[in-house]
Specification:
Blueprint: H1 3-14, E1 23-26, H2 32-49, E2 54-58, H3 87-94, E3 95-96, E4 101-108, E5 111-118, E6 127-128, E7 131-136, E8 139-142, H4 147-156, H5 178-194, H6 202-211, H7 214-220, H8 231-237, E9 253-258, E10 264-270, H9 274-284, E11 289-292, E12 301-304, H10 308-321, E13 330-334, E14 338-344, H11 352-357, H12 368-376, H13 386-397, E15 403-408, E16 414-421, H14 427-435, H15 441-451, H16 458-466, E17 470-473, E18 476-479, H17 481-487, H18 490-497, H19 501-515, H20 520-527, H21 538-553, E19 557-562, E20 565-570
Helix pairs in contact: 2-4, 5-6, 8-12, 9-10, 10-13, 14-17, 17-18
């Protein structure tokens, strides 16, 4: 927008009778996390109220609407002190789905004003750091605390328009695969028997299901509607040649093998019926047997790389939650040490942590009709419990936990990537990490990320540090001495922690005794390579700077010369020992 348009928008906002749900006025407020929360709240409020924009304005008194100007500069500000990441990029990364916003600077009445334009949420509510916010009057609150507004927002975003439950004109039972329907009959009988407490009825239930015709079976399984074919029926049971009914969706599961250098090996596409296709994909995956010794005995326990239930649940989740309107396929990429599964579509729960913490499923799903059918055919767990069981199964196996990554494709489509590791972490570490009874599953997830060298949120770091489980400086934290002692990683802990300052001071003194003087660059070459790995970027430079200033204050060394030719020398009292 040019300055004239921005000034016109600003004038119209200043004339509003009071602060609106989609307008916020500030002076010099510049806390990065607060800005991220307001982006979430205002994007969601704009969608809820049907506004085409929301605004945050810096340089205006919110009580008097007087234009006072601001010193806030979003273009120069970094995400946090010591970071090279711009504020805008940091906010983009931590909003999900990626929020659409833009900062502007404008001169108004001889005052500098900053305007943040925020577009409304589109496919799902916008979250910041895995939490969704909303505006209630002029207050920023968590969306989950206002279920009535949350329900209306989801409805406004069109999630209730279930593509999978829509009828398919022209499709008939002749377009369903006979073997898939037979498998569905067996699975639905199993579903009914599982929910029947009276074991004497199990045989009669199976006999009754066997007598139903196909229309009765699929109606009762809630896959068809009154004997008419739905998209869910074709996805699960349709013949491959009937996939044209679902165009332009690309109804495939693509399996690809990769070697250690990420080169492509064997590959194959698998179409509908998905009820049978997933077993074919599973049969292609090399699920090697590993010798696992989690209890430290001399007798290994043979275990598969991938738990069959976890692998099938992960694959079936891709089918259940794929956004078929985006036109992409499901991918299963098999590396020698891991499996990577991807599907298109926004991850609807607030976060993986939210799913692990809450006992109830989310109130909204993208493909509700498809999911209901998959539950009755025993392809997935009761809605909401599958991810929890996946994590608990991996924890019980003492294997790395599943890794979820939420990103976008080059075309801008939301994408969910799940990685299942096929290798064992250090058995001693794993035993402590997974078996400690005082750690809940959320804490186990955080420690698993520490073990993998993955970043943690500020709240997670704070909680693990308070529990004495981690040390180091964010973003590079490591397992604390308390845990390292238990898992035999003392040497790694000492390396991460680094040596005492006296060691580095003695290196400087020995250098100056030998060479007489040194530039800062000379001392950087001497010290930087010896600092612990936990220090990164500017932290390493600050460590050397603080060390030199400390030695200067202790009168061990002194700086001589004139800029730009400054050299460090031994101080007169060269017999002083390093402190």
């Amino acid at each position: 927008m040019n300055s004239d348009v921005l000034n016109s928008v600003l004038e119209s906002l200043l004339r509003l009778p009071r602060e609106q749900a989609t307008v916020e006025f500030k002076c010099n407020w510049e806390q990065a996390e607060d800005i991220g929360q307001y982006i979430s709240a205002l994007a969601n409020a704009a969608a809820l109220h049907g506004h085409d924009r929301a605004w945050v304005i810096w340089g205006v008194n919110d009580a008097t609407r007087a234009v006072t100007g601001t010193t806030f500069d979003p273009f120069a500000q970094k995400s946090k002190e010591g970071s090279n990441q711009s504020l805008t990029m940091w906010l983009q990364v931590l909003t999900a789905p990626r929020a659409d916003f833009c900062f502007y600077e404008v001169q108004h009445q001889q005052h500098r004003v900053v305007m943040l334009e925020i577009h409304p949420a589109r496919s799902t509510p916008v979250a910041f750091q895995h939490v969704r916010y909303i505006r209630v009057d002029s207050h920023k609150v968590k969306l989950a605390d206002y279920p009535d507004k949350e329900a209306r927002l989801w409805a406004m975003l069109g999630v209730k328009d279930d593509w999978s439950g829509e009828l398919v004109p022209g499709a008939t039972f002749d377009d369903l695969d006979v073997a898939a329907v037979a498998a569905a009959r067996q699975r639905f009988a199993d579903f009914l028997i599982r929910s029947e407490l009276d074991t004497t009825r199990h045989a009669s239930i199976r006999a009754e299901v066997a007598e139903w015709d196909d229309a009765t079976l699929l109606n009762k399984a809630r896959i068809t509607k009154q004997g008419r074919i739905t998209r869910a029926a074709l996805l699960l049971l349709g013949k491959d040649e009937a996939s044209h009914f679902l165009a332009p969706a690309d109804i495939k599961i693509s399996w690809v093998q990769r070697d250690a250098q990420n080169g492509t090996g064997l590959s194959a596409p698998f179409g509908i019926p998905f009820l049978l296709a997933t077993d074919k994909v599973y049969a292609r995956i090399r699920n090697a047997t590993l010798d696992h010794m989690p209890d430290g005995t001399l007798f290994p326990t043979p275990v598969p790389q991938y738990d069959p239930w976890v692998l099938r649940e992960a694959l079936h989740n891709c089918i259940a939650h794929q956004d078929y309107l985006l036109g992409g396929k499901i991918n299963v990429i098999e590396h020698p040490d891991r499996l990577v599964l991807t599907n298109l579509g926004q991850f609807i729960p607030e976060s993986v942590e939210w799913m692990l913490e809450h006992q109830s499923p989310p109130e909204h799903y993208r493909n509700q009709w498809l999911i209901d059918g998959m539950i009755r055919l025993r392809m997935i767990e009761q809605a909401g419990s599958g991810i929890q069981r996946m994590f608990r199964t991996q924890r019980d196996r003492l294997f790395p936990l599943p890794d979820y990554v939420f990103s976008t494709t080059p075309q801008g489509h939301p994408r969910v990537e799940l990685t299942l590791q096929g290798q064992v972490l250090d058995p001693k570490f794993t035993r402590v990490l997974m078996a400690r009874p005082d750690l809940d599953l959320g804490q186990v997830l955080w420690l698993d990320r520490v073990q993998k060298g993955q970043p943690l949120s500020a709240d997670a770091v704070k909680e693990l540090r308070a529990a004495g489980l981690i040390e180091g400086r964010a973003p590079k934290v490591f397992i604390s001495a308390k845990v390292a002692d238990a898992v035999g990683q003392k040497a790694k802990y000492i390396h991460n922690r680094g040596l005492g300052d006296s060691y580095y001071q003695q290196l400087v003194l020995d250098y100056l005794k030998k060479y007489g003087q040194a530039t800062r660059s000379d001392l950087d070459d001497l010290l930087l390579a010896k600092l612990p790995d936990v220090l990164v970027g500017q932290q390493r430079a600050n460590k050397v700077k603080n060390l030199m200033q400390g030695m200067r204050r202790a009168q061990l060394i002194e700086l001589r010369g004139k800029r730009p030719k400054l050299f460090w020398h031994l101080a007169d009292a060269t017999d002083k020992p390093p402190k």
